Amino acid sequence: MLWSLFVGFARIGTLGFGGGPSMLPLLQAECVGSGWISDEEFLEGLAVGSALPGPIATKMAVYVGWHTAGAAGALVAALGVVLPSAVLMVSLGAVVLRYRAHPAVAGALTAIKPAVIGMLAFVAWELAPGAITGTVGLGVALGAFSLMAFAKVHPGAVIVIAAALGAAALRP
After folding, report:
1. Contact 78/58 with Cβ under 8 angstroms?
2. Which of 35, 43, 70, 89 has the highest Cβ tally under 10 A?
3. Which helix (H) or strand (E) holds 26?
């Protein structure tokens, strides 16, 4: 199981171009597809991880690793997601910085940006049915979007506001 966690998260760390949010489709496919956690557990981990500082991929690795194999699983999954990207960043970062003005490199980087947005939209589409339930859930989602898009409220504050509202008003 530990080797499986390491390899799975190393795959995410290797293929997750664009940072944490763009890794969400990879995380979901790997974690849920491997049977380590369910879609609901993935969404719970994502919610908790979003309320904490740091990269979401690392936090999800620790969450899934702990859920699957305890402390050793958390450590192995975290190493799996961080190690490949650290090695690749050191290696490829030097190349990109040196050749970023080259038309092929500039074109590749330009095309990756909208692809990341499309991937984020896909994850939102996939997770929305489990996260946005009923009119209250829709109201919270639209309120969070509005606070960030129009009032320019910091995402951390939006999470705290949503958590406070949920703790006060949405108790089972």
Report:
1. yes
2. 43
3. helix 20-33
Confidence of residue 148 (pLDDT cuts 50, 70, 90): very high
The confidence score (pLDDT) of residue 15 equals: 83
CA atoms of 23 and 6, how far apart (whole Å):
16
Long-range Cβ contacts of 28-35 (<8 Å, 24+ apart): 28/123, 28/126, 28/127, 31/60, 31/64, 34/4, 34/8
Q: Are 80 and 13 in contact (CB under 8 A)?
A: yes
Per the CB < 8 A criterion, the answer to whether 23 and 12 are in contact is yes
Given the structure tokens 């690793």, which residue do they identify?
A: 65
**Alpha-carbon distance 80 to 37, whole Å?**
17
C-alpha angle 81/59/119, rounded to 5°?
70
Note whether 120 and 112 are within 8 A (CB).
no
Domain map (residue ranges) of the chain: 2-128, 132-172
Tens digits of per-residue pLDDT, 35-51?
Answer: 999 999 999 999 899 88
Q: How many Cα atoms are found within 13 Å in the side-chain-facing hemisphere of 111?
A: 6
